[in-house]
Amino acid sequence: MPERDGYIPGVPCWADTGQADPGAAAEFYGELFGWELEDVMPAGAGPYFVGRIRGGDVAAVTQPEQAGDPAAWRTYIRVERADDAAERVRAAGGAILAEPFDTGDAGRMAVFADREGAVFRVWEPKQHKGSAIVNEHGSINFNTLHTRDMESARTFYRAVFGWDTLELGPGMAMWTLPGYGDHLEAKTPGLREQMASVGAPPRFEDVVASVVPCEGDETPRWSVAFAVDDADAIAQRTAELGGQVTVAPFDGPWVRTTVLSDPQGASFVASKFVPENKDLVGSAVGSQAA
After folding, report:
1. Which of 5, 44, 143, 240 is found 20 to 30 A from 157 (Cα to Cα)?
2. Residue 223: inside a domain, yes or no?
3. Strands across the sheet with 36-39, in order?
4. In this structure, what is the dihedral angle of CA atoms 44, 46, 51, 56, given to the nearest 10 degrees?
C-alpha cells in the first residue's frame, strides 16, 4: 500500500495505547504484528514505543495518562489548530479532559469527550504527521465510534469536524468528510474507479471512520481496527501470546473480523477485507478504508 505523508483536518491520523507495563505491551504487539519498535522518548522520560513497518510509523505503546487507568487504544483526529477544536467541542456540549498542550516538536494535542463521554484526542501536527503505514497487515485501517445516541453524535461531530454520515444498512453507518475523496483521488488517481469495481457505495471515498450502536451495557467509546491478512490466524496468535479472543472470527459486510484484547486488557479489532462479503447483512465491527 502507498505510504501516507500526513492527513487533512477531520481525518483520524494516529492511535496509541496506554498500558501499565508498556514494555510488555510493546513486545506483545511486536510479536503479533511484526512491528519494529523504538522508544522515542529521551532518557528519564516515560516510554513511548513507536511501532513501525518498513520504517514507517504505525501506532504506539505508552503509559496510561493516570495511574490505574485501564489499558485502552486511543484515537487521534487531525485538526488545523487544537485550540480551535477545543472551542468547538465546548460549544457542541462536549468535555475538555486535557486542554491543548505541546508535545515537544512532535505536535500539539488535546483530550476531549463527546456528549456521551466517548473519549478522543486531536492532533495538530508539527514534526509528527501521523501513521505512515495504513490499510495493510498490522496497521490501523479503521476507527469506530460506539454510541447510544446516534442523533446526538451526528450533531456533535458535524459541529466539531464537519462530518456527515453514510448509511449502509441497519446498525451500520460511516462518518464521511465532504471532499475527502477528492483529496484521496488527487493522491491516488483511479481510487474512485477502484472502489466502484469492488461494489463500494457512492460517497464511500469520503469515509473517515465508522459508527455503531452500543450493545448491552457497553460504554460509549472509540475503538480501533487493524488490517490483517488472516483474522483466524491472528485470533489464534493473540491467544498464544497471552491475549484473549473476545469475539471469535466471523464474516460481516466486506470483512472477516474478530474482537481481541491484549494481555493487559486493551480491546482491538482485527479485520480482513473480503470484498465478496459486501452483500452480507449485519454490523461489522471493522472495515477497510482508503
Report:
1. 5
2. no
3. 36-39, 48-53, 56-62, 12-18, 72-78, 119-125, 107-113, 95-102
4. -60
**Cell numbers describing residue 154:** 451526528
Residue 46: CB atoms within 10 Å: 9
Distance separating alpha carbons of residues 100 and 90, to the nearest angstrom: 13
According to DSSP, the residues that pair with 261 across neighbouring strands are 244, 267
Grid coordinates representing 101 are 498542550
Residue 136 lies in a domain: no
| pLDDT tens digit at each of 290 positions of the chain | 457 778 999 999 999 999 999 999 999 999 999 999 999 988 777 899 999 999 999 999 999 988 889 999 999 999 999 999 999 999 999 999 999 999 999 999 999 999 999 999 999 999 999 999 999 999 999 999 999 999 999 999 999 999 999 988 776 789 999 999 889 888 888 888 888 887 788 888 999 999 999 988 999 999 999 999 999 999 999 999 999 999 999 998 889 999 999 999 999 999 999 988 877 765 444 433 33
**115 three-state secondary structure:** coil
Task: Answer yes or no: is 79 within a domain.
Answer: yes
Phi, psi of 198, rounded to the nearest 5 degrees: -105, 10
Domain CATH code at residue 20:
3.10.180.10
Domain total of the chain: 1
Q: Residue for cell digits 482508503? A: 290
